[in-house]
Write a structure and sequence with these properties.
The protein is an alpha+beta fold and 136 residues long. It has helices spanning 3-9, 16-25, 35-44, 51-63, and strands at residues 32-33, 68-71, 77-80, 87-91, 97-100, 125-128. The radius of gyration is 17 Å and the shape is globular.
């Protein structure tokens, strides 16, 4: 799909930085990445975009539904190009996320939602680690 059209369809102005980042990450493949890994990829392609600008662009992409943001308790933010409902395995040795299809997990009971709030979806993050590797 044309990146300019994709950005305009979600009412984002196609700035040079947004176009560059969108071309890198919105290529139709499901990917998990951090802003830092994208900055390295941008740099290896001969471009220079500040980390703050990258975060701003990625957050805009999240706000308009082009990306999903996955937080890991403040340690690092991982972005996901698969915006459909799904769950993840988190490899604690490598930091790698692997998708889990929604029908692979079932729930028998949910807690009562606090008054004044509504359920906005459930996403499971299952932490795994290599049995033979130590965590640092």
């Amino acid at each position: 799909m044309d990146i300019l059209k994709k950005l305009r369809d979600v009412k984002l102005r196609p700035t040079k930085q947004r176009i560059l980042l969108a071309n890198l990450i919105l290529d139709g493949k499901n990917k998990h990445f951090t802003a830092e890994t994208i900055q390295k990829e941008v740099s290896t392609k001969g471009h220079n975009i500040s980390l703050a600008t990258i975060y701003n662009c990625l957050n805009k992409f999240v706000n308009v539904g082009l990306l999903k943001q996955i937080d890991q308790h403040g340690e690092v933010t991982i972005f996901d190009t698969n915006v459909s409902h799904h769950h993840h395995f988190l490899n604690q040795n490598t930091g790698e996320l692997t998708d889990i299809e929604p029908d692979e997990i079932t729930f028998s009971k949910f807690p009562e939602i606090p008054k004044g709030f509504q359920n906005d979806g459930v996403e499971v993050l299952i932490k795994i680690r290599d049995k033979n590797a130590s965590l640092e």
